[in-house]
Specification:
The complex is a heterodimer of chains A (376) and B (316). Chain A is of the alpha/beta class and 376 residues long. Chain A folds into 2 domains: 203 residues, 3-Layer(aba) Sandwich (D-Maltodextrin-Binding Protein, domain 2), CATH 3.40.190; 141 residues, Periplasmic binding protein-like II (D-Maltodextrin-Binding Protein, domain 2). Chain A has 13 helices and 13 strands. In chain A, the strands form 2 sheets. In chain A, strands 1, 2, 3, 4, 5, 6, 7, 8, 9, 10 and 13 form an 11-stranded mixed beta sheet that branches. In chain A, a hairpin with a 2-residue loop joins strand 9 and strand 10. In chain A, helix 11 packs antiparallel against helix 13. The longest helix of chain A is centred in the N-terminal third of the chain and has 22 residues. The radius of gyration of chain A is 24 Å and the shape is globular. Chain B has 316 residues and is an all-alpha fold. Chain B is 77% helix and 0% strand. In chain B, helix 9 runs antiparallel to helix 10 and helix 12 runs antiparallel to helix 13. The radius of gyration of chain B is 25 Å and the shape is globular. The two termini of chain B are 35 Å apart. The relative contact order of chain B is 0.12. About 4% of the residues of chain B have low confidence. The chains are: A alpha/beta (376), B mainly alpha (316). Chains A and B meet through helix 1, helix 3, strand 2, helix 9 and helix 12 of A and helix 4, helix 5, helix 12 and helix 13 of B.
Amino acid sequence: MRLGKIKQVALWATAGLVVAALAGCAANEAAEGAAGASKSSDGTNDEQLSGQLNGAGASSQSAAQEAWKAGFISLQSDVTVNYDPVGSGTGREQFTAGGLGFVGTDAPFSADEASGGGQASCAADSPLVEVPVYISPIVVAFNLDGIDELKLAPAVIADIFTGKITNWNDPAIAADNSGVELPDLKISPVHRSDKSGTTGNFTDYLAATAPDNWTAGETEEWPAEGGEGAEKTQGMVEALTAGNGAIGYVDAGQAASLSWASIKVGTEWVAASAEGAAKAVAESSLEEGRGEGDVVYELNRTTDAAGAYPLILVSYLAACEKYEDAETGKLVAAYFKYVTSDDGQQAAAANAGSAPLTAEEGLSAKVSAAVARIGA
Amino acid sequence: MSIAELVKGGERTASGRGDAVTTLAASKPSPARRAKNALATGAVVAAVVLTAVPLTLVIWAAIRRGSERLDLTLFTHSMRGVVGAGGGLLHALTGTLLITAATAAIAIPLGLSTAIYLTEYGSGGRLAAITRRAVDIMVSIPSIVAGLAAYALFSLLLGPGTRSGLAGAVALAMIMIPVVVRSSEEVLRLVPADLREAGLALGSPKWRVIRKIVLPTALPGLTAGAVLGVARIIGETAPLLLVAGFTDAMNYNLAEGRMATLPVFIYTQWSSKGLDTAAYDQRAWAGALVLMAVVVVLQLAARALPPQIAKIRRNR
C-alpha cells in the first residue's frame, strides 16, 4: 500500500535522524583533549584553561559577545563560553542569586551593591569589578519616502515622542530642515515595549538635553502614553522598516538599513558614528565614590565638543574580584582580558558596529587595572 | 461519525416519518431551502479557505526562506566559534531530540498511568475527581510558569543558576503530562466494556485484562495522544530559554550544562543579530524549516509505529 510505504520510510527516517544527530560530532568542534595541544603554540604565553564559563545579561551586547566568544576560544580552545541574552535587569538578578561567572549590563550595579558582599556568585564579601566594554551610538531612525537625511534637535525629538508634534510638516521640524520637502503625514513614534537599556539611555539623553520638553526623567520602561510599542530591537527595526512616517530609536549596529537623523550637539549637527560615540565617552568623567575595580561612567550628555555624539549606550561587564572556585576566577579573568584588549574590541566593532574603547589611552589603562584585580 | 453517515442517518429518520415526508423529501427542495443550503455551504467553504490560506503561507514562507541555507554545513556544524555567516544547527537539533526524548520518557509513563487509574480504577472516586480537575487546570497554565517551576525546583536541589537539558525536560513534561492524560483517558474510555468483561469472565486478573486487552486495543489512539503531546512541546521556547539556557556548542549530557534547542536557536538568531543580518535571518528560517520537518517526520513515524509493532508480534 502506498501510504504504508510512506509511513515506513518516515519510521526509518526518524531512526536515521536520531542516530545521525546523536552519533555525529560537529565538524567545527575538535575532539576534546587534542585541541589544547595544537593551539598552545600560537605565541601567547597564557595558561591554557578548560571548562565552562557562563554569563548572562544585556541583549545589546549579544552580537559583540558572539564575536568575543569566537575570538576567545581561538585562544583557549578547551573553554566554552555561554552568554544568555536575558536582559540587563534579569542578568543582574541572576548574578546576585548566584551561579553566574559574569554579567553583561547596560546599567551598572549601584555603588552600594558593587562595594562588596551580598553577591551569591562571588566569594563572601568580594567587591565587584565593572568595566565598560561595549560603546555604541543610538540612532534616531525614521522612515519617510524620499527623505534620507533629517536634522532633529533634542527638544523636537522629545516633543515628537511625547505626542506634542504630530505631523511631519510641523514648523518646529521644518525650521531646522530648510531645503527638505516635508510631507503632510502623521508621525507615528515607535518605542520599545519591553524594559530596555536602549530606552534608558534615550530617555536619559532627552532628560539631560531637553529637560523642559521631556519631564519623565531617565527610565528603562517607556513612560509616555500613546505611540506604537515594539518588542526588542528587532521589533523596532521591523516597525520602522514597515511604516512610512515612523520614527524610533535603535542601537546603530542594527540600524544599517534605516535612515538616521542628525542630532544637535552644542550648535552643530552631528550624525551617529563610532568615532563620535568614543569622543562623547572621552568627554565624560568616571563616577566618583566607586572602588578601584569599578570603572563606571557618568555620561556627559550635554557636551558640546566638536564631533561628539552623546546619544550613546555604554554597556558594562561585571564580575567578582574573588570567586569561591579559583578556576572560575581564572576563566573570567582571561575572558575579560581578551574582551578589553584591542583584538577583542576590534572583533566587536566588526560584528556589532560598536566603538572600540581602546581608542582612549587613559581609559584602557584604568580598565586593564580593574581587570587585573579579578581572581588576583 | 463521517458526514456521509450523518446524511444517511438523516435520511433514515426522514423516511421513518411516513409517506408524506418521503414524498416531500423526494420532490425538489423549495428555493428558500436551496438558498439557505447554498449560503451555509459557502460559509463553510470560506472558513476552510480562511484557515488554509495562512497555514499554506506559513509553510510556503518557511520552505522558501529556509531553503536558502539548507546545506550540508547546517547539519554538520554547530555555532561554536562562528561569527557572522556560516555555522549550523547540529547542536540545537541534537538538543531538541534529546530533550524531547527525555520529556516523553517522563511524561508518557506518568500520563498513561494516570489515565489508566482514572478510567479503570478511580472512576467516580474523590481522588479521580480531584486529579481530573488538576489536569484540566494544568492544561491551561502558561508554559513559562512550568519553566519557572522547574527553575525553582532545580535551583533548590542543585544550587542557584543551574541550567541543564534535564531541567528543560522536567519543565516540558509538566506541559505534556496533562495532554497525554486527557487524550489517553478518552481513548481508554472508547475500549468496549464487553471486552473487559469477557476477559474478566475468563478468569483473568484485572491488571492482566488491562495489559493484554485494554492497552493493545487502544494502542493506536494512545500513540496518537503521545504524538500530540510531543508536538505540543517540541516548539516551546520560553521555558527552555529559562531552564535549559543557550549555548552554541554541542552538549550530549542532559544532566549537566546548558543545551541548545531548535526553538531557542531560532529565537536567538532572530533576536540578536550582528551587522550581517541576512546570515542570522537565513539561519533562523532554516531552523524553522528543520523544526517543521522534525515534527512532520515524528507524526508520520508515530502513525507507522502501531502497525509495525502488530506485524512484529504476529510474525513471532
